[in-house]
Amino acid sequence: MNSVEIKNLDLNFGAVKVLQNLNLDIKQGEFVVLLGSSGCGKSTLLNCIAGLLEVSGGQLFINGKNVTWSEPNERGIGMVFQSYALYPQMTVKGNLTFGLKNAKMPKDEIEKRVARAAEILQIEPLLDRKPAALSGGQRQRVAIGRALVRDVDVFLFDEPLSNLDAKLRADLRVEIKKLHQQLQNTMIYVTHDQIEAMTLADRIAIMKGGKIMQLGSPDEIYNRPQNLYVADFIGSPSMDFFEGHLENGVFTMGDIALPMADYEYANGPVSGPAIVGIRPEHILTGDQTAGAVTTQVTIDIVEPMGSDTLVYSSLNCKPLHIRMDGKAKVAAGETITIGFDPVSASLFDPTTEERI
Ligand SMILES: Nc1ncnc2c1ncn2[C@@H]1O[C@H](COP(=O)(O)OP(=O)(O)OP(=O)(O)O)[C@@H](O)[C@H]1O
CA dist 178 to 114, 200, 203, 216, Å? Predict the structure, then answer.
Protein backbone atom coordinates (compact mmCIF):
# COMPACT_ATOMS: atom_id res chain seq x y z
CA MET A 1 0.00 0.00 0.00
CA ASN A 2 1.22 3.48 -0.82
CA SER A 3 1.66 5.93 2.02
CA VAL A 4 0.30 8.90 0.08
CA GLU A 5 -1.66 8.78 -3.17
CA ILE A 6 -2.60 11.92 -5.05
CA LYS A 7 -5.09 11.33 -7.86
CA ASN A 8 -6.02 13.88 -10.54
CA LEU A 9 -5.59 16.74 -8.10
CA ASP A 10 -6.79 20.21 -9.14
CA LEU A 11 -6.37 23.37 -7.08
CA ASN A 12 -7.67 26.70 -8.29
CA PHE A 13 -7.36 30.08 -6.61
CA GLY A 14 -10.36 31.75 -8.25
CA ALA A 15 -9.73 31.65 -11.97
CA VAL A 16 -6.05 30.75 -11.49
CA LYS A 17 -5.42 27.03 -11.97
CA VAL A 18 -2.39 26.35 -9.73
CA LEU A 19 -2.40 22.53 -9.80
CA GLN A 20 -3.87 20.67 -12.74
CA ASN A 21 -4.62 16.96 -12.82
CA LEU A 22 -1.61 16.15 -10.66
CA ASN A 23 -0.84 12.51 -9.84
CA LEU A 24 1.78 11.29 -7.36
CA ASP A 25 2.18 8.03 -5.44
CA ILE A 26 4.55 7.96 -2.48
CA LYS A 27 5.65 4.68 -0.93
CA GLN A 28 5.70 3.92 2.80
CA GLY A 29 8.93 5.31 4.30
CA GLU A 30 9.91 7.20 1.18
CA PHE A 31 11.53 10.65 1.30
CA VAL A 32 10.10 12.67 -1.58
CA VAL A 33 11.28 16.21 -2.28
CA LEU A 34 9.11 18.67 -4.21
CA LEU A 35 11.58 20.93 -5.99
CA GLY A 36 10.92 23.88 -8.26
CA SER A 37 11.33 27.58 -8.74
CA SER A 38 9.24 30.13 -6.88
CA GLY A 39 5.52 29.95 -7.67
CA CYS A 40 5.55 26.48 -9.27
CA GLY A 41 2.97 25.23 -6.76
CA LYS A 42 5.03 23.08 -4.41
CA SER A 43 3.76 24.69 -1.17
CA THR A 44 0.23 24.57 -2.55
CA LEU A 45 0.59 20.82 -3.14
CA LEU A 46 1.96 20.30 0.37
CA ASN A 47 -0.88 22.35 1.86
CA CYS A 48 -3.42 20.22 -0.04
CA ILE A 49 -1.86 17.05 1.43
CA ALA A 50 -1.91 18.66 4.88
CA GLY A 51 -5.56 19.65 4.51
CA LEU A 52 -4.80 23.36 4.89
CA LEU A 53 -6.27 24.01 1.43
CA GLU A 54 -9.53 22.66 0.05
CA VAL A 55 -8.87 20.93 -3.25
CA SER A 56 -10.83 21.90 -6.37
CA GLY A 57 -10.88 18.37 -7.79
CA GLY A 58 -9.33 14.92 -7.44
CA GLN A 59 -8.65 12.74 -4.44
CA LEU A 60 -6.04 12.28 -1.71
CA PHE A 61 -5.32 9.03 0.13
CA ILE A 62 -3.09 8.53 3.17
CA ASN A 63 -2.39 4.90 4.09
CA GLY A 64 -5.21 3.86 1.79
CA LYS A 65 -7.80 6.08 3.49
CA ASN A 66 -9.53 8.75 1.44
CA VAL A 67 -8.68 11.97 3.33
CA THR A 68 -9.70 14.42 0.60
CA TRP A 69 -12.23 16.05 2.90
CA SER A 70 -10.72 15.16 6.29
CA GLU A 71 -9.59 17.78 8.79
CA PRO A 72 -5.79 18.29 9.06
CA ASN A 73 -5.66 16.64 12.51
CA GLU A 74 -7.43 13.54 11.18
CA ARG A 75 -4.86 12.85 8.48
CA GLY A 76 -1.97 11.40 10.49
CA ILE A 77 0.38 14.10 9.27
CA GLY A 78 2.79 16.44 11.05
CA MET A 79 3.88 19.65 9.40
CA VAL A 80 7.09 21.65 9.89
CA PHE A 81 7.05 25.19 8.54
CA GLN A 82 9.83 27.54 7.49
CA SER A 83 8.61 30.03 10.10
CA TYR A 84 8.76 27.41 12.94
CA ALA A 85 5.24 28.50 14.10
CA LEU A 86 6.06 28.02 17.79
CA TYR A 87 3.94 29.53 20.57
CA PRO A 88 6.20 32.31 21.92
CA GLN A 89 4.66 32.43 25.41
CA MET A 90 5.19 28.70 26.00
CA THR A 91 8.37 26.86 26.92
CA VAL A 92 9.83 24.28 24.56
CA LYS A 93 8.16 21.56 26.60
CA GLY A 94 4.88 23.49 26.49
CA ASN A 95 5.15 23.69 22.72
CA LEU A 96 5.82 19.97 22.45
CA THR A 97 3.00 18.92 24.75
CA PHE A 98 0.28 21.41 23.77
CA GLY A 99 -1.33 19.29 21.05
CA LEU A 100 -1.06 16.10 23.08
CA LYS A 101 -2.74 17.69 26.13
CA ASN A 102 -5.51 19.01 23.90
CA ALA A 103 -5.98 15.48 22.59
CA LYS A 104 -6.31 14.39 26.27
CA MET A 105 -3.39 11.96 26.07
CA PRO A 106 -2.43 10.34 29.42
CA LYS A 107 0.30 12.26 31.24
CA ASP A 108 2.84 9.45 31.41
CA GLU A 109 2.49 8.81 27.66
CA ILE A 110 3.09 12.54 27.02
CA GLU A 111 6.21 12.46 29.21
CA LYS A 112 7.50 9.39 27.37
CA ARG A 113 6.99 10.96 23.96
CA VAL A 114 8.58 14.28 24.93
CA ALA A 115 11.60 12.50 26.43
CA ARG A 116 12.04 10.43 23.25
CA ALA A 117 11.71 13.43 20.90
CA ALA A 118 14.01 15.55 23.05
CA GLU A 119 16.62 12.80 23.01
CA ILE A 120 16.40 12.21 19.25
CA LEU A 121 16.63 15.94 18.50
CA GLN A 122 19.11 16.68 21.29
CA ILE A 123 17.00 19.42 22.85
CA GLU A 124 16.86 18.01 26.40
CA PRO A 125 18.71 21.01 27.95
CA LEU A 126 16.31 23.43 26.24
CA LEU A 127 12.96 22.09 27.46
CA ASP A 128 12.36 24.91 29.98
CA ARG A 129 13.37 27.77 27.65
CA LYS A 130 11.01 29.95 25.65
CA PRO A 131 11.45 30.17 21.83
CA ALA A 132 12.91 33.70 22.09
CA ALA A 133 15.88 32.23 23.98
CA LEU A 134 16.66 29.72 21.21
CA SER A 135 18.75 29.98 18.05
CA GLY A 136 17.08 29.48 14.66
CA GLY A 137 18.40 25.94 14.42
CA GLN A 138 17.17 25.09 17.92
CA ARG A 139 13.73 26.52 17.12
CA GLN A 140 13.51 24.39 14.02
CA ARG A 141 14.44 21.31 16.05
CA VAL A 142 11.56 22.09 18.41
CA ALA A 143 9.23 22.51 15.43
CA ILE A 144 10.31 19.07 14.18
CA GLY A 145 9.88 17.74 17.72
CA ARG A 146 6.29 18.89 17.71
CA ALA A 147 5.59 16.67 14.72
CA LEU A 148 7.67 13.87 16.25
CA VAL A 149 5.72 13.65 19.54
CA ARG A 150 2.48 13.22 17.61
CA ASP A 151 3.84 9.95 16.20
CA VAL A 152 2.51 10.76 12.75
CA ASP A 153 2.69 8.56 9.66
CA VAL A 154 3.72 11.32 7.29
CA PHE A 155 5.99 14.31 7.93
CA LEU A 156 5.48 17.36 5.72
CA PHE A 157 8.28 19.93 5.60
CA ASP A 158 7.81 23.33 3.95
CA GLU A 159 11.26 24.84 3.35
CA PRO A 160 12.25 24.13 6.97
CA LEU A 161 15.86 25.31 6.59
CA SER A 162 15.33 28.49 4.57
CA ASN A 163 15.68 30.85 7.54
CA LEU A 164 18.99 29.41 8.69
CA ASP A 165 22.53 30.42 7.76
CA ALA A 166 24.52 28.21 5.39
CA LYS A 167 26.48 26.29 8.03
CA LEU A 168 23.45 25.54 10.20
CA ARG A 169 21.47 24.61 7.13
CA ALA A 170 24.01 21.98 6.20
CA ASP A 171 24.13 20.63 9.79
CA LEU A 172 20.36 20.39 10.13
CA ARG A 173 20.07 18.85 6.66
CA VAL A 174 22.22 15.96 7.85
CA GLU A 175 20.10 15.69 11.01
CA ILE A 176 16.90 15.46 9.00
CA LYS A 177 18.47 12.70 6.94
CA LYS A 178 19.50 10.86 10.13
CA LEU A 179 16.00 11.34 11.53
CA HIS A 180 14.52 9.75 8.42
CA GLN A 181 16.93 6.82 8.58
CA GLN A 182 16.04 6.31 12.23
CA LEU A 183 12.24 6.74 12.02
CA GLN A 184 11.63 5.42 8.48
CA ASN A 185 8.50 7.60 8.23
CA THR A 186 7.21 8.90 4.95
CA MET A 187 8.54 12.43 4.46
CA ILE A 188 7.49 15.01 1.88
CA TYR A 189 9.79 17.99 1.75
CA VAL A 190 9.38 21.24 -0.18
CA THR A 191 12.45 23.21 -1.14
CA HIS A 192 13.91 25.33 -3.90
CA ASP A 193 17.41 24.25 -2.85
CA GLN A 194 18.86 21.67 -5.23
CA ILE A 195 21.48 20.48 -2.76
CA GLU A 196 18.80 19.71 -0.17
CA ALA A 197 16.81 17.87 -2.81
CA MET A 198 19.75 15.84 -4.13
CA THR A 199 21.10 14.92 -0.69
CA LEU A 200 17.83 14.11 1.10
CA ALA A 201 15.51 12.58 -1.44
CA ASP A 202 14.78 9.00 -2.38
CA ARG A 203 12.86 10.60 -5.25
CA ILE A 204 12.62 14.20 -6.42
CA ALA A 205 9.55 15.68 -8.12
CA ILE A 206 10.64 18.64 -10.25
CA MET A 207 7.66 20.98 -10.61
CA LYS A 208 6.87 23.74 -13.07
CA GLY A 209 3.60 25.61 -13.51
CA GLY A 210 1.70 23.24 -11.21
CA LYS A 211 2.87 20.12 -13.07
CA ILE A 212 5.48 17.48 -12.28
CA MET A 213 8.10 17.66 -15.03
CA GLN A 214 10.01 14.60 -13.80
CA LEU A 215 9.77 12.26 -10.83
CA GLY A 216 12.86 10.18 -10.21
CA SER A 217 15.82 9.35 -8.02
CA PRO A 218 18.49 12.06 -7.67
CA ASP A 219 20.67 9.96 -9.98
CA GLU A 220 17.96 9.75 -12.67
CA ILE A 221 17.14 13.44 -12.40
CA TYR A 222 20.80 14.47 -12.63
CA ASN A 223 22.07 11.98 -15.18
CA ARG A 224 18.98 11.26 -17.28
CA PRO A 225 16.83 14.42 -17.27
CA GLN A 226 13.61 13.72 -19.16
CA ASN A 227 13.33 17.14 -20.75
CA LEU A 228 15.18 20.39 -21.35
CA TYR A 229 13.49 22.08 -18.40
CA VAL A 230 14.79 19.56 -15.86
CA ALA A 231 18.21 19.43 -17.55
CA ASP A 232 18.52 23.18 -17.30
CA PHE A 233 17.09 23.41 -13.78
CA ILE A 234 19.31 20.90 -12.00
CA GLY A 235 23.06 21.30 -11.55
CA SER A 236 25.10 24.37 -10.71
CA PRO A 237 26.17 25.56 -13.18
CA SER A 238 23.63 23.66 -15.23
CA MET A 239 24.27 21.75 -18.45
CA ASP A 240 25.43 23.65 -21.50
CA PHE A 241 23.32 23.10 -24.61
CA PHE A 242 24.40 22.98 -28.25
CA GLU A 243 22.20 22.61 -31.31
CA GLY A 244 23.14 20.12 -33.99
CA HIS A 245 21.98 17.21 -36.07
CA LEU A 246 21.68 13.51 -35.33
CA GLU A 247 22.21 11.11 -38.26
CA ASN A 248 23.18 7.44 -38.32
CA GLY A 249 24.22 7.51 -34.66
CA VAL A 250 26.45 10.58 -35.01
CA PHE A 251 25.65 13.97 -33.50
CA THR A 252 27.21 16.81 -35.48
CA MET A 253 27.59 20.35 -34.19
CA GLY A 254 29.69 22.63 -36.41
CA ASP A 255 32.83 20.70 -37.27
CA ILE A 256 32.58 18.40 -34.25
CA ALA A 257 31.13 14.91 -34.83
CA LEU A 258 30.28 12.87 -31.72
CA PRO A 259 29.70 9.13 -32.16
CA MET A 260 26.57 8.33 -30.15
CA ALA A 261 26.65 4.54 -30.64
CA ASP A 262 26.94 3.89 -26.88
CA TYR A 263 24.37 6.54 -25.89
CA GLU A 264 21.27 5.10 -24.19
CA TYR A 265 18.42 6.38 -26.36
CA ALA A 266 15.10 6.86 -24.58
CA ASN A 267 13.15 5.29 -27.47
CA GLY A 268 15.82 3.94 -29.79
CA PRO A 269 18.04 5.82 -32.27
CA VAL A 270 16.46 8.64 -34.30
CA SER A 271 17.63 11.10 -36.94
CA GLY A 272 16.99 14.81 -37.23
CA PRO A 273 17.72 18.08 -35.45
CA ALA A 274 18.83 17.58 -31.83
CA ILE A 275 20.22 19.46 -28.86
CA VAL A 276 23.05 18.00 -26.84
CA GLY A 277 23.36 18.84 -23.14
CA ILE A 278 26.77 18.46 -21.49
CA ARG A 279 27.57 18.90 -17.80
CA PRO A 280 30.71 20.87 -16.87
CA GLU A 281 32.29 17.80 -15.20
CA HIS A 282 31.82 15.72 -18.34
CA ILE A 283 34.11 17.86 -20.45
CA LEU A 284 37.43 16.02 -20.57
CA THR A 285 40.73 17.84 -20.11
CA GLY A 286 44.44 16.97 -19.92
CA ASP A 287 45.19 13.22 -20.01
CA GLN A 288 41.45 12.41 -20.03
CA THR A 289 41.21 13.56 -23.64
CA ALA A 290 43.25 10.59 -24.96
CA GLY A 291 41.12 8.70 -27.49
CA ALA A 292 38.21 11.17 -27.26
CA VAL A 293 36.79 13.53 -29.89
CA THR A 294 38.55 16.80 -29.11
CA THR A 295 38.54 20.47 -29.99
CA GLN A 296 40.26 23.61 -28.77
CA VAL A 297 38.64 26.36 -26.71
CA THR A 298 39.89 29.60 -25.19
CA ILE A 299 39.46 30.24 -21.47
CA ASP A 300 37.54 33.43 -20.58
CA ILE A 301 37.40 33.23 -16.79
CA VAL A 302 38.82 30.90 -14.14
CA GLU A 303 37.00 30.46 -10.82
CA PRO A 304 39.04 28.50 -8.25
CA MET A 305 36.53 26.84 -5.88
CA GLY A 306 39.00 24.93 -3.71
CA SER A 307 38.15 21.30 -4.41
CA ASP A 308 37.61 22.08 -8.09
CA THR A 309 38.08 24.87 -10.58
CA LEU A 310 35.31 26.21 -12.79
CA VAL A 311 36.38 27.43 -16.21
CA TYR A 312 34.17 29.66 -18.38
CA SER A 313 34.67 29.36 -22.12
CA SER A 314 32.60 29.12 -25.29
CA LEU A 315 31.97 26.62 -28.04
CA ASN A 316 30.18 27.40 -31.32
CA CYS A 317 29.41 30.88 -29.88
CA LYS A 318 27.54 29.34 -26.91
CA PRO A 319 28.69 29.36 -23.25
CA LEU A 320 30.71 26.34 -22.19
CA HIS A 321 31.53 25.55 -18.55
CA ILE A 322 34.30 23.14 -17.67
CA ARG A 323 34.81 21.72 -14.19
CA MET A 324 38.47 20.89 -13.66
CA ASP A 325 40.48 19.56 -10.76
CA GLY A 326 41.16 22.11 -8.00
CA LYS A 327 44.87 21.76 -8.66
CA ALA A 328 44.56 22.46 -12.40
CA LYS A 329 46.89 25.24 -13.53
CA VAL A 330 44.94 27.25 -16.09
CA ALA A 331 44.62 30.95 -16.79
CA ALA A 332 42.28 33.28 -18.65
CA GLY A 333 43.32 33.75 -22.28
CA GLU A 334 44.86 30.29 -22.53
CA THR A 335 43.76 27.89 -25.28
CA ILE A 336 43.20 24.31 -24.11
CA THR A 337 42.20 21.02 -25.69
CA ILE A 338 38.93 19.56 -24.45
CA GLY A 339 37.35 16.19 -25.14
CA PHE A 340 33.77 14.89 -25.15
CA ASP A 341 32.26 11.87 -23.43
CA PRO A 342 29.16 11.11 -25.54
CA VAL A 343 27.82 8.47 -23.13
CA SER A 344 27.35 10.97 -20.30
CA ALA A 345 25.74 13.57 -22.57
CA SER A 346 21.96 14.08 -22.91
CA LEU A 347 20.14 14.51 -26.23
CA PHE A 348 16.87 16.42 -26.60
CA ASP A 349 14.33 16.95 -29.36
CA PRO A 350 14.29 20.72 -30.08
CA THR A 351 10.54 20.65 -30.87
CA THR A 352 9.13 18.59 -28.00
CA GLU A 353 12.04 19.42 -25.65
CA GLU A 354 11.89 15.77 -24.51
CA ARG A 355 14.88 13.49 -24.01
CA ILE A 356 15.85 11.50 -27.11
N1 LIG B 1 -4.13 32.49 -1.72
C2 LIG B 1 -3.75 32.61 -2.99
N3 LIG B 1 -4.51 33.26 -3.90
C4 LIG B 1 -4.16 33.36 -5.20
N5 LIG B 1 -3.03 32.81 -5.70
C6 LIG B 1 -2.21 32.15 -4.86
C7 LIG B 1 -2.51 32.00 -3.46
N8 LIG B 1 -1.53 31.28 -2.88
C9 LIG B 1 -0.64 30.99 -3.87
N10 LIG B 1 -1.05 31.50 -5.04
C11 LIG B 1 -0.35 31.39 -6.35
O12 LIG B 1 -0.22 30.01 -6.64
C13 LIG B 1 1.03 29.75 -7.27
C14 LIG B 1 1.77 28.69 -6.51
O15 LIG B 1 2.13 29.17 -5.23
P16 LIG B 1 2.99 28.31 -4.20
O17 LIG B 1 3.10 29.08 -2.93
O18 LIG B 1 2.46 26.94 -4.13
O19 LIG B 1 4.39 28.27 -4.94
P20 LIG B 1 5.77 27.69 -4.43
O21 LIG B 1 6.26 26.80 -5.52
O22 LIG B 1 5.63 27.07 -3.09
O23 LIG B 1 6.65 28.99 -4.38
P24 LIG B 1 7.64 29.56 -3.24
O25 LIG B 1 8.90 28.76 -3.36
O26 LIG B 1 7.83 30.98 -3.66
O27 LIG B 1 6.95 29.39 -1.92
C28 LIG B 1 1.75 31.08 -7.34
O29 LIG B 1 1.58 31.60 -8.63
C30 LIG B 1 1.05 31.92 -6.30
O31 LIG B 1 1.09 33.29 -6.66
Answer: 19, 10, 17, 21
CATH class for the domain made up of 232-348 = mainly beta
Interface predicted TM-score (ipTM): 0.95
Delimiting residues of CATH 2.40.50.140 domain(s) in the chain: 232-348
In the reported structure, the alpha carbon of residue 125 is separated from the centroid of ligand 1 by a whole-number distance in angstroms of: 38
Closest alpha carbon to 185 in 144, 155, 147, 225: 155
Q: What pLDDT digit, counting tens, does each position of 118-174 carry?
A: 988 889 999 999 999 998 889 988 999 998 898 888 999 999 888 888 888 888 899
Q: Compute the distance from residue 68 Cα to the ligand 1 centre, in Å.
A: 20
Q: Which CATH number fits domain 2-231: 3.40.50.300, 3.30.565.10, 3.60.40.10, 1.20.1630.10?
A: 3.40.50.300
43 touches ligand 1 (CB under 6 Å): yes
Q: What is the dihedral of CA 269, 274, 279, 283, to 10 degrees?
A: 80
Lowest mean pLDDT among 24-28, 138-142, 296-300, 313-317: 138-142
**Ligand 1 and 37: CB distance under 6 A:** no
Q: Which among 71, 80, 68 has a CA at the least distance from the CA of 10?
A: 68
Full-model pTM: 0.92
Q: What is the pLDDT of residue 1?
A: 75
Q: pLDDT > 70: what percent of the chain?
A: 100
Q: Is the CB of 41 under 6 A from ligand 1?
A: yes
Q: 97: part of which helix (H) or strand (E)?
A: helix 92-102
CA of 119 to the centre of ligand 1 (A): 36
* CATH 3.40.50.300 residue ranges for the chain: 2-231
Q: What is the per-residue pLDDT for 282?
A: 97
Average pLDDT, the chain: 94
